[in-house]
Structure formats: C-alpha cells, structure tokens
Amino acid sequence: MRRVAIVGGGHTDFVFNSPKTGIELFAEAAMEAIYESNLKPKNIQAIYCGNGLGDFSEGQIMIQSYIANDIGCLNVPATRFEGACASATLAIRDAAMWVASGKYDIVLVGGTEKATAMGTPLATRTFAMAHDSRYESPTGLTFPGYFAMLAHLYSSKHNIPLAKLKEQMAMVSVQSHEYGAKNPHAQFRKEITVEKVLSGFMVASPLQLLDCCPFSDGAAALVLASEDVAKKLTDKPVYIVGTGQASSGRMSSQYKYLPRIRARELSVKQAYDMAGVGPEDIDVCELHDCFSIASIIAAECLGFADYGTAGYLWEKGETRIGGKIPINISGGLKSKGHPIGATGASQTYDIVKQLRGELVDQGRQVEGAKVGLVDTLGGDGVICNLILKVD
Amino acid sequence: MRRVAIVGGGHTDFVFNSPKTGIELFAEAAMEAIYESNLKPKNIQAIYCGNGLGDFSEGQIMIQSYIANDIGCLNVPATRFEGACASATLAIRDAAMWVASGKYDIVLVGGTEKATAMGTPLATRTFAMAHDSRYESPTGLTFPGYFAMLAHLYSSKHNIPLAKLKEQMAMVSVQSHEYGAKNPHAQFRKEITVEKVLSGFMVASPLQLLDCCPFSDGAAALVLASEDVAKKLTDKPVYIVGTGQASSGRMSSQYKYLPRIRARELSVKQAYDMAGVGPEDIDVCELHDCFSIASIIAAECLGFADYGTAGYLWEKGETRIGGKIPINISGGLKSKGHPIGATGASQTYDIVKQLRGELVDQGRQVEGAKVGLVDTLGGDGVICNLILKVD
Q: Is pTM beyond 0.95 here?
C-alpha cells in the first residue's frame, strides 16, 4: 500500500461555551487545514469526521453531511465515526487506509464537539453513557469514578502510598498547565502548582479538581494525501507510518489486567510493529490524560516505563522537553482542553507541528523530533494509536 | 486491490419492542453470520458496526466496544459508523475497503438498533435530529414532513395529479407487504390493499399511515473475506464489486435538483462505474423505501426509470418478481421494518440470499439473479450504494 502523509492542519481555540456550532467549528478547522495544504475544497475527495456527543449537545445526528455542505464539499462522501473520546483518531486511522489503498488521493479528516453547553455535571452524566449501558452505567459509575477506582487499584497493586501517588499525579497536571500556557489554542493558559492541585475540591476520591480535564468546545482537522501528491503540496510531509486499534469492552472484562488497560497495549503494539519502531524511538507523545492517573497508566501501557513506575517520569522531569520522553507538550487534555470527538485530531495536529519543527516560537518545540506517537482512549473501551514520522 | 466477498450473514427478526438490547441483537445476528461462514469469533480481525440512535434509545454511546466483548471478540478493533439510516451501509463500504486493501482477511460488519422503546412520536422527533440542526430542524420539520413535501414537488414537477400519484404510492406499499408477508424476519407479515392504504389516517399530507415504514428493533450482520479466503469458506461467495457514497447536505442546498436526490445519482454512478455495470444489469434491488414516495424517487435516481415515470414500474408490476427490475422483494423498510442503524445490513443480507438462490422456499426468489443493488439513504443527507455479484 502507498505511504500516506499529513500535508496540513487546522485547529480552533478550545473554549468553554463557544458561540459556534459543531459544524461551524469543524468548518473553521477544515478551511485552515485545506488552505495550509495549498488546496481548495473542490480537491477534497472524501471527509472523515469524529463526533461524540452532537446528538445530545446540539440535537444533531449525521453531522458529516452538513459539514461537507458548509465547507463547499457538497456531495462528497462524508462519514461520521463515534468512539467517544477516540472518535477522531478512529477517523484518521480509517481515512489513512482509504488513501493508502489508492482509492483516494486527498481526503479531509478531523473531529468536532460542542461539549460544554449542557454544563459539566450533565455532560459528565451524559458521557457516562460510554460505559456499558447494561452492566456498568446502572451502578451510577461516571468516568471520574472509573479513573478514581483505577488510581486506588494502582496504588494498591504497586504498593505506592496514595499520598505519594497523589503527588505524582499532581505533577502530571502541573506540567500540562506549564506547557498549555504556551499553547495559543489551549483552554486553560495558566500555570498551577502541586499545592494548588492538592488543595482543589474532591471530585471522586482521590481525584481532585485539577486532576481532571475539562469538557471543551472545539475542532481540529487534517488533510491527508498519498506520498506523491503530498510531495507536490508541501516540503514537510508528515507520514502516518503506524496505526493500531483495539476494544477493551466493559471494565469487568478487563479485571485481571486492571489497572493496566490491555487493549492499549495491543493497539500500540500494532502501531509499533507496523511502523517498525519501539517506545525507545518515540521523540514526542500526546497521550490521553483525561485524568492525571490516566497519564501514568497510559505511559506504562505505551512502553515508556515499567508498570508501577511511570509517576517517576513526571517526578524526574523525563516527560518534559529535553527529558527521556516528552509527553503532552500541547498541554494535553488537562490544560489544552477536551472536546470529546475532536481530541484525537487535536493530538495529531500537535504532533504534526512538533515533527515539522513549528513550535519554536511558542517555546515548546521538542528539538529534532522525528517520530511521534498519538494515543487516544475512548471511554473505557476504544483505543486508537497513530505513529507519525518525518523523513 | 483484492476482491472482497460476503461469505455469511445473520438477521434477527425485526420487531416492535424487542426484549433484547441493541448489543444483544447485534450479537444474535453476528453469531449467526459467523457460524454460517464456518468460522469462530476468534477468526474475526475487525468489527464495523452501524448504529443510529443508541445514544437516545438505550443511553449507550460507543456501542462497538461492548459488541466486540459480547461476541467473544475481546480487544478486536471495533468501529461505530453513524450516518442515520445509512449507518450500516457506510460500515459495509468501509469494511470492504479494509479487506480489499489487504490489511484484514476476515471482518464482521453489520448494524443494530433499538428504535421502538421510546414510541413512534418521540422516535420521529428524535430522528428529526438528522436534519440540519441550525436551519431546518428548528422549523419543526420531521422526516414524514420532508417526504410529504417531496411528494408534492414530484406531483407538481411531473404534472401527475396527486390522486394518481397517491394510487401509485399505495401500490408500492401493497407490493412491499405482499413480499414482506413471505419474509420470516419481517415486522408486518400481512398483505394490504390499495383501498386500505388510501383510507389510512393522514400522517403528513399526502402520506397516510401505510405510506410510512415503521421504526423497528433488530440487527443484521455479514462476514466479509478476501477472495482467496472466501473460496475456502463457502461455495457461494457473493462479491462486493461496486460501492458509492455521497452527501447531499441540507434540503435547501439541493433545491434545484429536488425532488430528485442528486447525491444518490452521484453515489450510484460511482458504484456502477466501479462494478462496470449499469442499471440494466441489475437483477434485484433493495432500495430505501422509508416512505412510498421515496421508492419512486429512488428508482429514478438509480436509473430504473425516466424522471416522473417510476410510479408506472409498480403500477405495471415491473418491480415484481418476473418484472423488469424486482425491487424490495424482502418487503422493504415498509413491511420488513426499519431498525435505523441496521437497515443497510438487512438490505445487503437479503440481496446476498437472492444471489445465492436461497429464497425459493420463502416463495420470493428472483430466479437466476446474478447482480444486485443496495441503496440506503441516511436522513436527507447520506447516500450509500453497494453492488453485489455472484460469478
């Protein structure tokens, strides 16, 4: 199959209560991506769009058709992917296959979400529908509760006192805010301290307010092209060299692996194998930090640390620029924001910027980054990974 | 790219108010499809699932992960497609590409829906979210209203008196019920008459009750395999030889084409061109008859009749077995039922049965059928077509 490159990207600001609709947000990101790619809407052969909550937040089913219409791609095939927070990453993985296969040369892919209009309490309860509706949702479980349980399991299994773990978790959030403050698209552009995290109100013990990412409104989009077309459009094609996907099913089905997330280990292995690289080759990573504990667990599943030790990566600064594995230099979901169906496209957008070396002015460039990893977790059940590379 | 075949299928009964969940319905169809394909769940490399309303009808987002879990495909990549009524057809088109590309050899694809628990009035209003939420939904438009307007436009544009058109529309429903009565999976297994259609209560003038398909609960699934694998699994592989997809955007964007649906013409052309066939080569067709007028409009867009003349196909019996182009020999959405996200998989399932010659016992076999067409319309905005063929 052909190599597939990302040739341009667009990204809206991530905000609370955007005056724009999800369709309009997508259009803003899409037009930026198309023009950055030196293309026009008429060049787009297909559209792939992640959207998680549009049904509830805006009363909009089948958003893809109106997106195509709004950006001047009338009648172009457009497909919506829903895999909760991983919606856009699924869309990118799929879009890349359509280009790799030779069917399309130039496609648009991204994600959009209006997640804040209903307010955080209702959004949290709505989003809890991503749990199994038969066996887990009825218990009243929400995602803060789910990740709080993982934190307790992690503390217990690895014999790390909860107070110590909470300090490490706080350091995850502190780092995310430090870099997020430099990202012009980020929702929270202010630094915080460990003391501030540890004095925040309790959301779901042991997760305090600043251990949790926000809901956000926003969109991000990318243009994908076959290698030969990409080389005509840009001097800096960023290739999608590895992809992986897996489903974890309901939490109870994962019992013997918890607090690890087995599906993530399998998904990233597919991506590593396809790309012919390993965790030691990754120069920069955007991983799914919906809660601070989620970062620590993810870093281990992705192979950046032994089980029970990833907290030290943050404690020792190894996840910072210049460290062993720079993680979430965008600010991550925590500081940049988390518009559910757009998050995977936003993560990918930021890795593209890193690999192109375009973040120097923002003061958050990982110098010489050549290989990047995207990691997105949808609810507790869908994992998707991408490996990007510049030649 | 490789040829892709359907090697087995499964189909639940389509019913009002199933006691099963959408996940369980999918599992029922999926297990039938897997065993009919002489496979086991462990052979499935990826799952593609259409689901339209699970968020509202069951409080289930990200259904694909729990589906994978329930059928013993834990950790297998699973993706949800949402394109309103066309959800499952999008999933099939996409799944076929993953097999054609060489990435997977054996995948499971289908759709599932619980559309009836909320009752028809609320389901109608919920489903109206598939209109554009900014410019059309706020007018109060629902899909019966949309197709009622198309009927008036059709009558006016083609100078067919409404009374005459209503008679032709009634004949569409009468034929669907005649064949649906023979389909063991159909929701309405009783014949009706033109008089009965014309005396039904008015839903949205000129559409009366029996001009409208029902909401249904149900699922259908198919196993797709690469040609070489398929030949080992079955003596009767049914090849997916053509696919097409297009987005029509909101109704106002289609104004100059209405009551035609331009996106359908473009989508089916892609499928015809890819398959190297034309409408004259189609032996049997399942088209999207959500309302009786929708059948007439679809038959024209698909090339089976000149514009303004498709009503005569039904009037003259040309859409019956033995006619020029047998249409909806399954009973169609009208009689078989319409579980939104499962409908495209159900249509495809029935064409597979026709091409395999397996409907003789049901008294609805189109003798010698070799080439079949699937046509699915999602809301007013997503069109997807498939062309199936046996060697």
A: yes
